[in-house]
Amino acid sequence: MRTDDEADGGADPRGGVDDRLFLQSVARALDVLEAFAASPHPMSLGELAEAAGTNKSAAQRIAQTLLARGYLDRGRDGGLVPGRRILDRSFDYLRTNPLIERAMPVLVDLRKVANERVDLSLFDDLTTIYAVRLQSKRETFYATLAGRRVPTFASSGGRACLAQLPDGTVDDILARSDRRPLTRKTLTEPAKIWRKVKEARRDGYAFATEEALIGEVVLSAAVLADPGRPLGAVHIAGSLSEWSTEDFRKRFAPLAIEAARALSG
């Protein structure tokens, strides 16, 4: 028997999810947790309901459940903030992902050689997500945190992954992307992004200057499960106050490519 909590529909071939088994109550709870992505500060119940796209009564019930389970907490002003239990689930993911386990010694060695920030990002269609970030001596706070998502079109790691995909898939991702700039230097026009993708195909790595963070230069090489199937990318990032773009590319492109190859397959 179908309950009111189940959605109508058939199987979704894109994600292998059968919509007939989709639970709206679980989705609404996740909407509440995901509301903090756009509003990283304590929120009142009304603010949380608005951000999650639900009514205040539903938000209150969800919030009380999440508070009881430790997935929400009270901030200093009484507002709601993400709880510590969320970090437990991040830990679960990181320790069960075989790529991350395999990558850690490679990334640690790369960080020692490069003496600059080294990241591992995971390709996730329209976005890439940083799973490992090994810091350098100077960083913007949120740029040091694992879990940050950036648009695939706007990141060197994303473009390194796009370079491994068929042209039609690249066009589809660009068409579905919300191409709002992250900085004033972010490329948003499809033709200009395509030039960077083709450059990455030619060179074996992607390169970006100040497109995600002002003052940052970064290059990335794709990690592949097999040809045409990117898993993510190895990044090396530095400061334009210390490097010219040409010197940075000459110094670090071979290192990034070598590390990515070691993790591929």
Tell me about this structure.
By secondary structure, this protein is of the alpha+beta class. It is 42% helix and 21% strand. The protein is built from nine helices and ten strands. A six-stranded antiparallel sheet has the order 7-6-5-10-9-8, with helices on both faces. Strands 1-2 form a two-stranded antiparallel ribbon. A hairpin with a 6-residue loop joins strand 8 and strand 9 (216-226). The protein is globular, with a radius of gyration of 20 Å.
Please give the structural blueprint.
Layout: E1 11-12, E2 17-18, H1 24-34, H2 45-52, H3 56-69, E3 72-74, E4 80-82, H4 85-96, H5 98-114, E5 117-124, E6 127-134, E7 149-151, H6 156-162, H7 167-176, H8 190-203, E8 206-209, E9 216-226, E10 229-239, H9 245-263
Antiparallel strand pairs: 1-2, 3-4, 5-6, 5-10, 6-7, 8-9, 9-10
Helix pairs in contact: 1-2, 2-3, 5-9
